Amino acid sequence: MTNIDAIQLIALAAALGWASGLRLYLTVLLVGIAGHFGWVPLPPGLQVLASPLVMGCAGFMALVEFLADKIPLVDSAWDALHTLIRIPAGAALVAGLVSGWAGDHGTAWGVVAALLGGGLAATAHAAKASTRAAANTSPEPFSNLGLSLAGDLAVPTMLWLAWAHPFVFFPLLALALVVMATLIWFCFKFIRALVRRVRRPSPA
């Protein structure tokens, strides 16, 4: 990890956690490719991601996720299933990144990193799942497709910025988290009102 300074490490850790909540398999694939070709030095805990087998599996799942995420209702079912996958995976990726750099304090910092990475993954996942569920109530397909393509673009962009331009990445991440928190609040409020309307008995 000697080629990564502290600012880059923090940015990469935050990017990994956040991106895992949106596109876990794409995140794993991109990290594996970067490590395989030597673009980014991976710590021991993440070097397995550069394995051709892991990259092949991640690539296949990324393709499945890409297609599933474009189909209304299927995307929400996929998100519901991945509630149990994205958050712990994001925590594990961030812990693997940080603990490999932290030396004698690797275990303690790994736990802290796992908590923060899991929190970022949970925020991104909740925003994605709630926004897409709200979009699925609309009969037109374009909002759903647009949100999906935005996620496809955001993940590689933010991972690249975390590595190449961390001081650009940090304000963008802060803005993304504010937007996501707002979306979570509004979408859950909208979905709750919709459920109440559906459950309300019709007048005789």
Automatic annotation (TrEMBL):
Signal peptide: none annotated. Keywords: Membrane, Transmembrane, Transmembrane helix. The chain crosses the membrane at residues 45-68, 80-102, 108-130, 142-163, 169-191. InterPro entries: DUF4126 (IPR025196). Residues 10-184 form the DUF4126 domain. This is DUF4126 domain-containing protein. It comes from Pelomonas parva.
